[in-house]
């Protein structure tokens, strides 16, 4: 408790990258979609609180 854990990253079969980053209270899951129309290949991320 009280220690910072590294973010857990993995990629799903359909190309979605999921980042689980521990927070002080609530873990956050960022679902990142590859977008062909995104500038410089950047992704659009949606953060979902797991609470």
How many structurally independent domains?
1
Report mean pLDDT, rounded to a whole number.
Answer: 59
How many beta-strand elements? Answer: 4
Q: From N to C, what is the helix and strand string?
A: EEEE
The biggest beta sheet reads: 4 strands, antiparallel
Please estimate the helix content: under 10%
Distance separating the two termini? 18 Å
Instruction: Name the strands of the widest sheet in spatial order.
Output: 1-2-3-4
Protein model, in words:
This protein is mostly beta strands. The protein has no helices and four strands. Strands 1-2-3-4 form a four-stranded antiparallel beta sheet, with no helix packed on it. It is elongated.
Structure keywords:
mainly beta; 4-stranded antiparallel sheet; 51 residues
Secondary structure: elements and pairs:
Layout: E1 8-11, E2 17-21, E3 28-33, E4 44-49
Antiparallel strand pairs: 1-2, 2-3, 3-4
Provide a compact summary of the structure.
The protein is mainly beta and 51 residues long. The protein is built from no helices and 4 strands.
